[in-house]
Amino acid sequence: MKLARNAAMLRLLVVVVLAAAFAFAIQAWIVKPYSIPSQSMEPTLVSGQRVLVDRLGNDFFAPSIGDIVVFHPPAGAAEGTFGLCGVKRPRTAPCPLPAGSATSINYVKRVVAVGGDTIAIVDGHVILNGIRQKEPFATFQHCVNDSTCSYPTPIKVPAGYYFMMGDNRADSDDSRFWGPVPRSWIVGEVFVTYWPLDRIGFF
């Protein structure tokens, strides 16, 4: 009887360890949950909203314009001071390159330009390759007469880099201030939101 009980406990322990390892592997390489930390992606994503990020697809497919991604920003951004640009630039131009290396924190933003594109920002609106973009997902409230919302001098995004912006253009610490990020800093694409229940959906 004791031997049978010990065998049953051993089987249970093995199942628990395997389940934990499987869950860890899924989060490390396939899908990982994240909580939205700020208002920078409103109205698309609100603070505290929970999403799932496709980590596996990031190894095979490059992000595209319009994708919402989780990534590591440069060290300047982590200080919460709108970061530091890696190169000198006109005050009327967005930052063309980040300074330093990536931090371990996570940001959630939208890809608005990729390597080879030229980008400028006017009143929070993206001017991509000379064309003002239609951005129904974004909010430009409070961008009028706000210098952080307008960088009309265009820059060219370097190859292999991605220019990120929050949908809440007047309240987002993003590539305007510390530059586009290389693909190696990108964790993966947000593909579903699962909490709160009234916001469940796919992207």
Q: Would you mind describing this structure in some detail?
A:
With 203 residues, the protein is of the alpha+beta class. The protein has a single domain (2-202), classed as Umud Fragment, subunit A (Ribbon), CATH 2.10.109. The protein has 3 helices and 12 strands; from the N terminus they run H-E-E-E-H-E-E-E-E-E-E-H-E-E-E. It has helices at residues 2-29, 75-78, 175-178; strands spanning 31-35, 50-54, 68-71, 107-114, 118-122, 125-128, 131-132, 151-156, 161-165, 181-182, 186-195, 201-202. Strands 1, 2, 3, 4, 9, 10, 11 and 12 form an 8-stranded antiparallel beta sheet that branches. Strands 7-6-5-8 form a 4-stranded antiparallel beta sheet, with no helix packed on it. The longest helix is centred in the N-terminal third of the chain and has 28 residues, at 2-29. The chain is globular and about 80 Å long. It starts with a helix and ends with a strand.
